[in-house]
Structure formats: structure tokens, C-alpha cells
Design a protein that fits this description.
Elements (H helix, E strand, L loop, with lengths): L8 H13 L19 E9 L9 E4 L5 E3 L5 E7 L2 E8 L6 E7 L3 E9 L3 H8 L1 H20 L3 E3 L1 H5 L16 E6 L2 E6 L2 H5 L5 E4 L2 E3 L12 E7 L19 E6 L9
């Protein structure tokens, strides 16, 4: 580094004396400068609902990569070390419609964005109408009836809270025959079976009675889950969770919590 600050006369004299008395050395060529690499990009954003309320625990992912972030209690999220250029992001949160957006990120800069998520109409209906709330109660009653039969593994809200974590996979680590793996930059659930030992065999997921694809266990914060059902294969999976499907890798059934609807007493 070359300083632009001028030397004093005394400093200059000492430097000249040292140069004159030092043994002569053969001059070495200066090393060639390495070409500078393009700077990485960064993004900071905030996620809110249509009323301007922060949406905490929303999952944000960079399409085509393993980069992911989760919004904090203020709805804020951040990415560092991204590639500059056109980038597609996806945003998911239980109770809200999934979103995706495309940005052109700039090298050696921090871009910012504000995202507004729309509430899922089905969840709003479940909160606002007695009929939908009654239907949900019936669905949870089915959860407890299946639990009483003893087929599969069941975690209630009380079981989930006992682990004191908001990472859903952490509540399942003690379940026999279950493995938590890293898949695409996020945690996934796998049942121990002959098929899973030969190749990666993700289970099928059902959320509130609906089949959901391209998802993993930690896409759902533990604070949003009322109960979980785990089935290892076709012999134990109820017909309602395997219509027309051959279940070879297990089934995960998740029942979410709706604001204003408490746990079963």
C-alpha cells in the first residue's frame, strides 16, 4: 500500500542513509497483479401481509440453488454471497399464498425488496366461519381416532412443544426408523427401508388433508403444527392418504394450527 502522506526531512534522511549502507541486492521483478474477481451480491428484504403486519417464519429460497433464508419476527430476511445477475426467489408460509419474484442483483452491492403476501383463502375461511371450524375439528378428531388404533407414529401438539424448538425435524429425531437428511440445502425426512438404502426416497406429504409435492419437513415451523402422523409403508397408511398411489417411501401427514383455534383439550 502506498501512502500519500508526505515524509518529514528527518525520516527522508534516515531512509537515504539506510539505502546507501545496505548491501546491494539484485532487483526482483514485481509480481503481476491478479485479476479482480467479480464481487458477490447481497439482498435484504421484508415480508408483510396485506395489512402491513410482518410475516415471521416465512421461507425464502433462491431457485436453482441451495441458498435459503427464513424471515425473523420483524419479517426481515437477508442473503449474502449470491451470484450477480437475474435471480428468481420463492416465498412460502403456511396460511399465505406462495409467491415468486425475479430480481437483477448487482455485484458488490446490497439490493433490497419489500414483499407483500396474500392470506390463503382457505385458512381465512377456517377462521371466519363456524362450518369450516367444525370441519377442521372433525379432521383433528380423525387424527386422534387413528392414533388410538396404534398404526403409525403420532406426535400431538404437546409432544411438539416438549422439544422447545421451532425446527420441525428436531421434534422427530428420536423417532425410531426415521432419518433427518440434508436435501437441497434444507432438512428432509426419510424412513429407513430397503428402497431408501438404494436411492434417495422422500416420503409423500399431506397437509391438512391435501397432497403437497416438492416440500420437506422443515418447510413448516413447529409453531404452526398441531399434529403429525408418520406411516412407513402401504400396509399401515390409511386409504385416504394413498388414493391411487403406491406408497413405497412412507407418508407424512401434517395438521396445522389455525389462529383462534386451540389445541384439543
Amino acid at each position: 500500500m502506498i501512502s500519500t502522506r508526505p515524509r518529514t526531512l528527518a525520516t527522508a534522511a534516515i531512509w537515504l542513509f539506510a539505502l546507501a549502507t545496505a548491501p546491494q541486492a539484485r532487483a526482483q521483478p514485481a509480481p503481476l497483479a491478479q485479476p479482480a474477481q467479480a464481487g458477490s451480491a447481497a439482498l435484504v428484504g421484508w415480508i408483510r401481509d396485506s395489512a402491513g403486519v410482518p410475516v415471521a417464519q416465512a421461507d425464502i429460497r433462491v431457485e436453482g440453488s441451495s441458498a435459503a433464508a427464513r424471515a425473523d419476527s420483524t419479517g426481515r430476511f437477508a442473503f449474502r454471497g449470491l451470484s450477480a445477475g437475474k435471480t428468481t426467489f420463492s416465498v412460502r408460509r403456511l396460511g399465505f399464498e406462495p409467491q415468486s419474484f425475479e430480481l437483477v442483483l448487482h455485484a458488490s452491492a446490497v439490493d433490497s425488496i419489500s414483499v407483500t403476501m396474500d392470506e390463503n383463502a382457505r385458512v381465512l375461511a377456517a377462521v371466519r366461519t363456524d362450518a369450516a371450524s367444525d370441519r377442521r375439528s372433525i379432521m383433528l378428531d380423525g387424527f386422534y381416532r387413528r392414533k388410538a388404533k396404534g398404526f403409525g407414529v403420532f406426535l400431538t401438539r404437546e409432544d411438539i412443544e416438549r422439544h422447545h424448538t421451532n425446527v420441525l425435524s428436531e421434534t422427530l429425531r428420536e423417532v425410531p426408523g426415521i432419518r433427518v437428511v440434508h436435501a437441497g440445502g434444507r432438512s428432509g425426512l426419510r424412513f429407513d427401508s430397503a428402497n431408501s438404502k438404494r436411492y434417495d426416497c422422500p416420503p409423500q406429504y399431506w397437509i391438512d388433508g391435501r397432497r403437497v409435492v416438492s416440500t420437506e419437513i422443515d418447510d413448516y415451523p413447529a409453531s404452526d403444527v398441531e399434529g403429525i402422523e408418520l406411516y412407513r409403508g402401504p400396509s399401515t397408511t390409511p386409504m385416504q392418504f394413498s388414493p391411487g398411489n403406491v406408497v413405497v417411501c412412507g407418508t407424512v401427514v401434517i395438521w396445522t394450527r389455525v389462529p383462534g383455534v386451540g389445541s384439543r383439550p
